[in-house]
From TrEMBL:
<feature type="transmembrane region" description="Helical">
    <location>
        <begin position="474"/>
        <end position="494"/>
    </location>
</feature>
<dbReference type="Pfam" id="PF11840">
    <property type="entry name" value="DUF3360"/>
</dbReference>
<feature type="transmembrane region" description="Helical">
    <location>
        <begin position="372"/>
        <end position="391"/>
    </location>
</feature>
<feature type="transmembrane region" description="Helical">
    <location>
        <begin position="235"/>
        <end position="260"/>
    </location>
</feature>
<feature type="transmembrane region" description="Helical">
    <location>
        <begin position="135"/>
        <end position="159"/>
    </location>
</feature>
<keyword id="KW-1133">Transmembrane helix</keyword>
<feature type="transmembrane region" description="Helical">
    <location>
        <begin position="171"/>
        <end position="190"/>
    </location>
</feature>
<keyword id="KW-0812">Transmembrane</keyword>
<feature type="transmembrane region" description="Helical">
    <location>
        <begin position="280"/>
        <end position="306"/>
    </location>
</feature>
<protein>
    <recommendedName>
        <fullName>Integral membrane protein</fullName>
    </recommendedName>
</protein>
<dbReference type="InterPro" id="IPR021794">
    <property type="entry name" value="DUF3360"/>
</dbReference>
<keyword id="KW-0472">Membrane</keyword>
<feature type="transmembrane region" description="Helical">
    <location>
        <begin position="95"/>
        <end position="115"/>
    </location>
</feature>
<feature type="transmembrane region" description="Helical">
    <location>
        <begin position="431"/>
        <end position="454"/>
    </location>
</feature>
<feature type="transmembrane region" description="Helical">
    <location>
        <begin position="53"/>
        <end position="74"/>
    </location>
</feature>
<feature type="transmembrane region" description="Helical">
    <location>
        <begin position="210"/>
        <end position="228"/>
    </location>
</feature>
<feature type="transmembrane region" description="Helical">
    <location>
        <begin position="397"/>
        <end position="419"/>
    </location>
</feature>
Length: 504
């Protein structure tokens, strides 16, 4: 019987049979045969390994910060937009805890863990967070926005639009996108750490300036990250560097701004409480037609931005997994399906997250050379435990923990992956123009524009362009560019940079 016909359970060999741990993990990736939308069981279809703890911890730390940021942004925006709405930090924390309970069970543990291990977890749409204030002021409703995003995402998934866009993006364009996202993200986290450290000066005047703490935390973690890379243990970077950031900060006297205020217990899990009236929960009631109209351009924009996000995650897996592991790579269309369903269900029960592929999970998982299911189950379990305990959320969002985790676990690996993809002059040309366009406008427009130019042979590999059909050259790339541009003009995303007012 050939290896293609034998099951994972039959092909599995103990780690002691291999010369190194890395060889064992490579073998596990090659023999896995995930069942799509069927029950996958531990032992029969996959195994739990020590390395699965890394993406699970990384994803938990990052998602606490992301969900809290989204909820607080909605609270601030709706309080400013609606006369009868008064929402604050306590409300935002409760909403974040709702987001970490029901969606974690349904879409981390059940969907990606047991029923489709090729669907990456549905996480947070980071680029949309700065827009939430604008979304609220435009008259949008969180539940209306979630329903529209879910419907558009399901349509794109059904027609295989996500995978088509991924396949039409060359390595040069994808590399440039990853370089830009990695570099700008890393600079943002470094700036946030330094701002936090400088802000400590006014917290305890007797100790004098504490601005140097940020520099020490960064320096120590740079050395630790370099050492982990040297000994091929980079998959340990997030927990190791996050704990190091915590310990160093406390040792240097920064602990006085670490406040434990989230109590143990369950948030209100009754959807009627959150959306049933205008006197409790969100204080908005159920959405009307006008709310759906106001939410429409933002929903189109959110789904249009999914493809480059998913592309980066899929490519990161390909770069870190060995050859012959196509069966365990994330499926873009299935991930869009779970993201769409999670968006609607998570918000219906009281949440407010804007969903996308979970980068802070899949990137550390790629580094650790682990497939999706076991880590997804662990991550969902961690999220539920943290949401119930409450106080770990306060530690995870403390700047020297959260910012370091994002820096070493997401943005530096993205930057490294982008550099690896630029292999020759043709790739570097496409990558350079993609970075330039992203600086001029934003990464979504840059991706769509560069894909159009690259697929027509105006930049990059002309031989590749000659093999594409008219639909692949012009219709799909131009359509993606027009949709992204119109959606951004409609919601005023270019107003701050170029003074172009919102169309709506």
């Amino acid at each position: 019987m050939s290896s293609q016909e034998r099951s994972y359970q039959e092909l599995h060999r103990p780690a002691s049979d291999f010369a190194s741990r890395s060889d064992y993990l490579d073998h596990e990736l090659k023999i896995m045969k995930p069942r799509r939308w069927k029950l996958n069981l531990p032992g029969r279809d996959f195994r739990f390994e020590l390395e699965d703890l890394v993406p699970a911890l990384a994803g938990t730390i990052a998602i606490i910060a992301m969900y809290s940021s989204v909820a607080m942004s909605w609270a601030d925006g709706l309080t400013a937009a609606w006369d009868h709405v008064e929402l604050g930090k306590t409300f935002a924390i409760e909403v974040a805890r709702v987001e970490m309970l029901i969606p974690a069970l349904l879409f981390c543990i059940l969907a990606s863990g047991f029923f489709n291990p090729r669907a990456n977890l549905a996480g947070n749409h980071g680029p949309m967070i700065p827009l939430i204030g604008t979304i609220a002021l435009a008259g949008a409703h969180p539940l209306a926005l979630a329903i529209l995003i879910g419907v558009f995402g399901l349509l794109l998934s059904y027609f295989k639009g996500g995978s088509k866009l991924v396949n039409l993006t060359s390595e040069g364009v994808a590399g440039g996108l990853l370089i830009f996202l990695g570099f700008t993200g890393a600079m943002s986290q470094i700036g946030d750490i330094q701002s936090w450290a400088v802000g400590l000066e006014s917290a305890d005047v007797a100790k004098g300036s504490l601005g140097y703490i940020g520099l020490v935390v960064l320096a120590v973690n740079i050395i630790l990250y370099a050492y982990l890379a040297k000994v091929n243990k980079r998959w340990l970077a997030i927990p190791a560097c996050a704990v190091t950031g915590l310990v160093v900060s406390l040792a240097l006297g920064a602990g006085f701004d670490l406040v434990f205020e989230t109590e143990t217990g369950l948030p209100n899990l009754n959807p009627v409480y959150w959306w049933g009236s205008t006197e409790q929960g969100w204080m908005l009631g159920l959405p009307g037609v006008e709310h759906f109209i106001a939410s429409l351009p933002f929903a189109i924009l959110a789904v249009a931005m999914w493809s480059p996000d998913f592309l980066g995650h899929r490519i990161f897996q390909e770069l870190n997994y060995p050859k012959g592991t196509d069966r365990v790579l994330m499926d873009v269309d299935d991930t869009m399906t779970t993201c769409s369903l999670r968006q609607m269900v998570g918000t219906a029960v009281g949440g407010c997250n804007i969903t996308s592929s979970w980068g802070t999970y899949i990137i550390p998982a790629g580094i650790a050379k682990r497939p999706i299911p076991a880590g997804a189950i662990l991550l969902g379990t961690f999220c539920i435990i943290v949401a119930i305990l409450g106080f770990p959320m306060d530690v995870a969002v403390w700047p020297p923990v959260m910012r370091i985790a994002l820096l070493v676990g997401v943005f530096l690996p993205l930057l490294e992956a982008g550099v690896q993809m630029v292999k020759d002059t043709k790739d570097s040309q496409a990558a350079g123009i993609c970075v330039f366009a992203a600086i001029v406008a934003n990464p979504v427009l840059a991706w769509a524009l560069t894909m159009l130019l690259d697929n027509n042979g105006l930049i990059g590999n002309k031989e590749r362009a000659a093999k594409l059909s008219v639909v692949d050259k012009i219709v799909i790339p131009a359509g993606a560019l027009i949709i992204c541009l119109v959606a951004m003009l409609a919601v005023g995303m270019l107003e701050g940079q170029y003074g172009i007012p919102a169309l709506l």
